[in-house]
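Q: What would this chain look like folded?
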Amino acid sequence: MRAIQITQPGGPEVLTISEIERPSAGPDQAVVEISLAGVNFIDVYHRIGRYPKPLPFVPGAEGVGVISELCPDAPSDLRIGDRVGWVMSTGGYGEAVALTANTLIPLPDDISDEDALALLLQGMTTHYLAHDSYTITPGDVAVVHSAAGGVGLLLTRYVKSLGGVVVATASTPEKRALALATGADLAVPYEGFRDQVMEVSQGAGAHVVYDGVGKDTFDESIASLRRRGTMVLYGAASGPVPAFEPTKLAVGSIFFTRPSLGDFVANRLELIWRANEVFAAFRRGAMQVAIGGRYPLASASQAHIDLEGRKTTGKLVIQVR
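A: My prediction, written as structure tokens:
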């Protein structure tokens, strides 16, 4: 079958099409015929070796498709022929993948493959950020960095649906306009965003900063928080944050967390519950899907170039079939 197989860590050029052996289902697995795969920064981290994977491997932490093989003791809500999605794995950049059956998410009939893909990893990330990492209540001031990205657009809309006030950051006027159209109260450049936060909050600072950018925004994010505010660092699009002394958080008694989706879908019950919460939010308009780019499997390298160059908005999709 066709797949992108990484044989050594490196730049986007290592994402080339290969012919590899088709997988078969192990004792606790299902085989999924992949239709679409998502493009996420976790795929970049796997590719460059920041989060090492045994070589060789097929990247692609999330995808959607149809079950073609299923182990006998699979969860009762799964059957051959069902449309499913998955997150927090690998194997999406290929025509088929064998996955642990209890990690598969049944897709509702009224949610398309493309919408489901945009709502899986990034939608569930949005959900835990606004419910668990910091619980948004009406009137809370939230800074959403990279607000025109896949998580950023979903998070902006969702925080607004919960009654929050969103200060969105984005690099270009076009991206800031998109954030405003999604519901942000204010959309500003990265440079000097703290001043805008202080103005909106009447000098108190933000209740929470959702920072998926990392190195370039971290210090100003901390400085823009109010007393006992919460710093949520959930990504590092600009690079990892350098080591820092905990005393940096002492001014204002700042809470700091570095969450990861895997800890918020820690078992099947939580996985399915959170996915269904996201689907329900989408149905009522509290999350809005925006597809920012569609790429054939052979152009996976270009998808990574565009993502790393921070040239994109919304969700990037690899069309496998």
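The mean pLDDT is 96.
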